[in-house]
Amino acid sequence: MVSKDQGIGGAILAVCVIVAIGFVVLVAVPKQLFGWDPATVRLDAVLILVSIAFIAILAIGAWIGWTMATTPPPKPIEEITTEIEEKKEEPKVEAPAQQAEATATEEKSVPKKKK
After folding, report:
1. Rounded to 5 degrees, what angle do the CA atoms 32, 15, 65 make?
2. How many alpha carbons fall within 13 Å on the CB side of residue 35?
3. 1-15, 38-52, 97-111: lowest mean pLDDT where?
4. Whole-angstrom distance between the N-terminal and C-terminal Cα of the chain?
5. Which of 4, 29, 53, 60 has the fewest beta carbons closer than 10 A?
6. What angle do CA 89, 90, 94 make, to 5 degrees?
7. Burial (0-12, 13-18, 19+ Cβ within 10 Å), 18
């Protein structure tokens, strides 16, 4: 069983292969299959292909512009460094139970000197 993404990927692959084969057939043998003038068909096929590519590039550029226009600006670097410094300066506040455990552990680990 294929996932949704794999199914969509397979459909895109199939459509691209069919369009590519159709384009090659249309450009290679337009007179034999359809009785059309080869020079006109080839020119039209290239014109359509270039137009689609140009529109796709413009669409990508428009999408990038839209994303940049609607994304909020990042914080200034000075503000970020100030926040980091403030976090470092704040002492850690431990719960009383944790402080007692830490003190007991420290007392056990320190060897006692004999007199």
Report:
1. 120
2. 0
3. 97-111
4. 78
5. 4
6. 140
7. exposed
Q: In a 3-state reduction of DSSP, which class is residue 57? A: helix
Q: Kindly state the tokens that stand for 105.
A: 């552990």
DSSP 90: S
Closest CA to 5 of 56, 13, 19: 13
Q: What are the residue ranges spanned by the domains of the chain?
A: 9-88
pLDDT value of residue 104: 57
Q: Give the per-residue pLDDT at 51.
A: 95
Is the overall model pTM greater than 0.85, yes or no? no
Of the candidates 66, 68, 29, which has an alpha carbon nearest to the alpha carbon of residue 45?
Answer: 29
Tokens of 21: 């084969």
Distance, CA of 4 to CA of 7 (rounded, Å)? 5
Per-state percent for the chain, helix, strand, coil, to nearest 5: 80, 0, 20
DSSP-derived secondary structure letter, 91: P
| pLDDT higher at 22 or 98 | 22
